[in-house]
Amino acid sequence: MATTYEPVIGLEVHAQLFSKTKMFCGCSISFGAPPNTQVCPVCLALPGALPVPNARAIELAVRAALALGCTVNERSVFARKNYFYPDLSKGYQISQFDLPLNTGGKLVIDTPSGPREVGITRIHVEEDAAKNLHGVGHGTDTLVDFNRAGTALIEIVGEPDLRNADEAEAYLKKLREVLMFVGVNDGNLEEGSFRCDANVSIRPVGQEKFGTRCELKNINSFRFVRKAIEYEITRQEAVLSAGGTITQETRTYSDGLGKTIPMRTKEDAHDYRYFPDPDLPPLVITRAFIEKLRVTAPELAEQKRTRWQKELGVTLYDATVLTGHPKIADYFEEAAAALAGKDASPEARAAAGKKVANFVQSEVLRTVTTRGLEAEFAVSAEYVAELLRLVEGGSISGKMAKDVFAEMITTGRSASKIIEQKGLSQVTDTSVIEAAVAEVLAANASQVEKYKAGKTSVVGFFVGQIMRATKGAANPQLVNDILKKMLDAQ
Amino acid sequence: MTSQALCALSGIEIQKKVASGDVSAVEVTNAFLERITHQDRKLHAFLYVDAEGALAQAATVDRARKAGETLGPLAGVPVALKDNLCTRGVPTTCASKILAGYVPPYDADAVERLRRAGAIAVGKTNMDEFAMGSSNENSAFGPVKNPWDETRAPGGSSGGSAAATASSMASFALGSDTGGSVRQPGAFCGVTALKPTYGRVSRFGLIAFASSLDQIGPFARSVREAARVLSVIAGHDARDATSTTTAVDDYEAECGKEVRGLRVGVVADALGAGVDAEVVKATRAAVAKLAELGCEIVDVSLPHATHALAAYYLIAPAEASSNLARFDGMRYGLRKTGDDLTATYGTTRAEGFGPEVRRRIMLGTYALSAGYYDAFYVKAQKVRTLIRRDYDAAFKKCDVVLTPTSPTTAFKLGEKTSDPLAMYMADIFTLPPSLAGLPAVSIPGGYSADGLPIGLQLTGRAFDEKTLVRVSDAYERASGWLSRRPSEIV
Ligand SMILES: [Zn+2]
Questions:
Q1: How far does the centroid of ligand 1 lie from the alpha carbon of residue B261, in Å?
Q2: Do residues A11 and A132 both lie within one domain?
């Protein structure tokens, strides 16, 4: 009988810290700036230049660690990782080695068999390399753009707790969500600010010992992660089933070929000669600072989803959609709070939440553009709350609200302004409606007779006529009530 | 005043005359430039003379005086800068072919401070390549000669700065000291040479040799001048993470004070085998002189100092192997294109670095390699801690520790070039304070029968340069050695 194998997957994620400046110099970070314009003696590694740690980046790294349940080490050490490559200006990368900033956290992911805890080994701070640009210079020259050199990163090393590509994808998505909600990373895979390497091995089911692993690089989209891991599992199974052995190596994923291809084997592996960077004293983080960050930690998406279901009358599905981006979550909460008003009862808050959730999902979301941690809304949360309050108060119908919202987008005006200017306000004056009803009944005597004869289906006909007569502005509930009363009085 | 008379003045006197308008900074600068032209043909202390820049700076000082501005403490005083200190717009080569013609875009912090104080940078001084050496014979551009005897080495690695100061081609000079590179050439050339506490002077803009040891220090003909220069260049710099915020003392105020009651520690081992009889005799005479001045003489021991040489030659090359990785031919400096990237790195570095630099890069790379790191680098760091503790214990019994600076007087050029280990022994007394990060000064302490200067080294507590200045100055006044100068070169 053929052996059944179990995959073992561990992910290493490099996440760019959302800091305005680089890790060890004052250069600003702007994706897409002309090459070599965001550089200085430090990140170009000119002779005599020295690194100085970016306090903001360290704070973000600690925030990430706290959100992932890590222990923040009060003393950690920057180490040099030595190797030669043109994108590495100093000939070494400043990273952390045996004494990282954070150790031992976890991330809970949802799987078909329920929530599963995935261990996080460590989170350390390091700097990014520059970017080699092939094929843009003369002939076969490679040019180097140092704009990215020295950008602040955290590397999040996960435990080999994942068992399939689905779990790997779930882990990455959850991790990205956490980092975005803490404001640490902009979650931008295309621009490379959230990058992933995967260690994949397989072992016969029931065996405890890990198999030989391969490291997969260049898997910078959720789709690639899935495809690369699935390919790699299949490849390794084929090798072992055919009686072969897995070579420990680094492989890169080629989307064009749809497969992973070898980059270098263990024999070619670098001896990075890590040692403490003598330019940087040990990084000391005080208990008080950690506590301050713990207290001011923002609410995570997971927590929001749970709370909203309890307090804001939304379903898990609604909550999941509305936590798709931190700014959308903020928007929803702001609008829901504004609609409920101050000192609202729990019931009123839940009702308001439900209304806002529906409207945001049906109308607002398609008008939102997000870029990284930023989101642009066509209409403010406050305006949306006002619009929904007008519907609630009966000034306009729910259907009219959609048209008014469209008008709000194009004009930027508030709902009440638009209603006032366009005379759209719903007719709730009973005398106006009574007059319209009387007019319609008088003009359609034969239909009235049919009603009297018991054919109640003509009510719909009358409603349509009355609404037309009031240009759709009559409150439908009032129209129904008054029509019934007046018909019965005939 | 004649040029010769101007050059014979101390920096203190020059500043006073320039500030009072007795003489212009331009006149002073011209006098020194003229002297360099004559003297340096034989000595080769300078790699670059910046006549134009110096005269422009001098003109600025003169204009400021005429405008009635308060002049800085070094106004109009000519300084020579070791060629590993970055100078904006002025070639900085570290006496290496790999940096031949390299022009930095910025000034080192110490250079900036000197300029602000009104000092006139006349040129860049010769040195052992990348500050690796004890004789200046490792300069890629030819050795410096000792002004006291042109057949002898000026010491190293800051030999050019020492020789320029001793021969009055500049009033003072800056050097860098990693394991004795300021003090040992200071001793060989008969000038005051001070290595401050690690962290006292910013290393920003000092091209690194061994980052955990490198310190910039002044050379001057008198202790008072050295003290004034130290006050100017010391101080916190946010661009160097290892720079201290400890307050800077008024070092010059220590000159002229009494030393009665101060305790001078004498290390018996430093006057034993392997030390020239004349050096021992001079050191004992200095001890007697200090006793005469009222100092209390106490015996101290530094039991782990015997391991300093071994520890130093692991730590310094290890750091250097990484620090010098940036010289890869990619962004600046020499590039020798090979068949592929690896060949380009190899050829560039093989041709760009001299034999001693290559030797230390290999030593250091080896010491950091997987499997050797704990046995070499980690162990050397432990020795360093033990040496620091030795000093802690010694400074419970005394205020300064007195040893010779070097076991010999200046040796002949070529005498030790074929035996690196013999050359390394020249640093046995200067290494322990370096490893402990302590301030130490070499002052003239007598002359051998053949007229060569003998250096005395005083080591102080961390950040207690004040006491070093106080004792050195008292000894200088009592000994009368200050009046001795090398004979003019004709
Ligand atoms: Zn920069």
A1: 52
A2: yes
